[in-house]
Write a structure and sequence with these properties.
The protein is an alpha+beta fold and 151 residues long. It contains three helices and seven strands; from the N terminus they run βαβββαβαββ.
Length: 151
């Protein structure tokens, strides 16, 4: 199992089942696994595209990222809620997820830099895709983050 089936869908085109599934996997990773009590439902989803990588044989959601338009989280477009579901982490889908996320931003918001709020333990991962640290580390919901930019 080393290939995912990818879709990038605007919120307005998500099915009820897709929305439920992506919210469930986000809750599993960010609330339960990382033990963060935070408002995942932040009124941004409705303005965003949702990148989903599924296991072709089963249709299970294995990897996900939210593509945020400029002016919502930052002046620039952004990538957020980046995750690989726990049961699929050994498959190393993260690199393909981030590459496809960057491509989705470039497709929807061409010629714009991308700003992210990265968990600091992943800064080397993001640096390998051309992101550069800007500013100082900060606490977000009990996890250290740093803003990063990709020109």
């Amino acid at each position: 199992m080393n290939q995912l089936s990818w879709t990038c869908t605007h919120f307005s085109s998500l099915t009820v089942n897709e929305l439920y599934e992506l919210l469930q996997v986000r809750s599993d990773v960010f609330v339960i696994e990382q033990q963060c009590i935070y408002p995942d439902l932040d009124s941004k989803d409705q303005k965003c595209y949702h990148l989903m990588g599924r296991i072709p044989e089963t249709g299970e959601l294995a990897a996900y990222a939210r593509i945020v338009p400029p002016g919502i989280s930052y002046e620039e477009p952004s990538i957020g809620r980046v995750l690989t579901a726990l049961k699929f982490r050994s498959n190393k889908f993260g690199k393909e997820l981030l590459q496809r996320s960057i491509e989705a931003v470039e497709s929807h918001y061409p010629s714009q830099p991308i700003r992210i709020g990265a968990q600091t333990y992943l800064r080397t991962f993001y640096t390998s895709f051309g992101f550069v640290e800007i500013g100082e580390p900060y606490d977000e919901d009990g996890i250290e983050h740093i803003e990063m930019m990709r020109e």
